[in-house]
Amino acid sequence: MKVILKETIDTLGEEGDIVKVKPGYGRNYLVPRQKATLATPGNIAVLEKQRAAIAARKAEQRKSSEGLAKKIAGATVTIAQRTGEDNKLYGSVTGADIAAALEALGIAVDRKKIVLDEPIKTLGSHLVPYKAGYQVTAEIKVEVVPLAAEEA
User: Fold this and answer.
1) Does any domain span residue 20?
2) Any idea what the CATH number is for the domain that residue 105 is in?
3) 147: CB partners within 8 A, 6+ apart
4) DSSP string of 9-33?
5) What is the CATH number of the domain that holds 26?
6) Does 149 have pLDDT greater than 70?
7) Global pTM?
8) HSE-up (13 A, CA, CB side) for residue 143
9) Which DSSP letter does residue 116 get?
């Protein structure tokens, strides 16, 4: 089954691409959620007329993604966590913690785009990738420090 994507989907392609998907995926997920339309001759003709608008929208989104990536790359996030003996963390640092710390610095991010394979469980400096969008990624510098005794 061929469909025209209405939005970028990481595993399939970008907005405006014509892709082949399994019939169940297209019929039960993509089309009902307005993420794609069927690739009929009429829909393809409409797509050709909208190519310039789609290209302009992609360029604008890429520009904003690159701007956000530059902001993130220049920021260092310090997160204080409670520690026990041998400076082991009681909890862990998750994507939500990193997003909240970036918000405090005035950088609004989507926590779902912070790529953590597993939560950070050690003190020190860590580089965490962030998918800003449209093949633009940035590295967030995260410093995990022990929480001072008077703050606990």
Assistant:
1) yes
2) 3.10.430.100
3) 80, 81, 82, 83
4) BTTTB-TT-EEE--HHHIIIIITTT
5) 3.40.5.10
6) no
7) 0.70
8) 7
9) -
